[in-house]
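for the writeup, i need someone to sanity check this before i put it in the appendix. the sequnce is what the collaborator sent (i think, or maybe the updated version? ugh). structure was predicted straight from it, no edits. if anything looks off just tell me and ill rerun, i have time this weekend
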Amino acid sequence: MQRAHHQIEQERRFPLLGGSIEIVLYDVDPGVAAILFEEIYQEGLRLQSIFNFFDPQSELSLLNQQRIRTVSAELLEVLTVALRYCRETGGRYDISKGREILLRKRRRQQPRAAPTSNYTANYTAISFHGNTVRLQHPSVCIDLGSIAKGYIVDKLLEFISQQGILSAFIDARGDMRITGQHLEIVEIQHPRKKGGFQALLLENKAVATSGDYSQYYGTPETSHLVGTVYASSVTVLADTLMEADVLATCASLLPLEEARALIENHTAAALIVDKQGGIHETTQFPRYTLTEEPRFVRRQGVVRGEA
């Protein structure tokens, strides 16, 4: 994913969410921005400490270890939304399969032997009572990597707005959201070729892509996605990055027409590249496309990370 460049902006990169993210504040004094950037970064670290699947001391990891735990409002909110999508997809999107992700991470040095699991439990073994969460089957291990990054970006933009900044942009390694009056031009990365192949205009929108080229174990057929993957890439535009993030993952795990229906039902827009290279657009997607070659393109990024 690529974006255009504005002349009036303050930007900073931070090590966050398993890599480097870029935060842009528009129409703000450099001195004010310098103070705000540090506050934003600290808030990002706080949120990351809740959801980091690979940090044994994160709140999510402690829940996976303890099996029953009273959780924060942030973790409860994301779990609630994620489980709704588990139900909506009939379990093809399933946040309880974290042990599969852990097995794959351990065996990255053996890409030809991408592991499979025989776990019989699913998301229905996750239960709530108030803000207490219980994991009711020993094989359940919650992984929120498909939704937490988007949520954290949304919360950071909310934090930025509370500081009086009217317009901001965050690029979390290709998952992007912009707020306020400014616009951004971005390009979708092709799942099998270098470079972008479709320019988009973002205005008060979020965009995320789930692709089998982003993280995989040996070949795209053994990607980070757990389950049958029907698409090479799915790019979703939505009002929030959490929604775009999770919809892109869900749509990757559904046959084309089901994926299209899911996107339409959530009044989002998507471009789907199938395994044969065919390109499919949902009804609203053309609203965001640019038919002319953008003049300013300065960054390329893989569109889904490990956070």
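Residues 30-51 form the longest helix (22 residues). Helices lie at 30-51, 59-66, 73-88, 98-106, 148-162, 241-252, 256-265.
thx in advance!!
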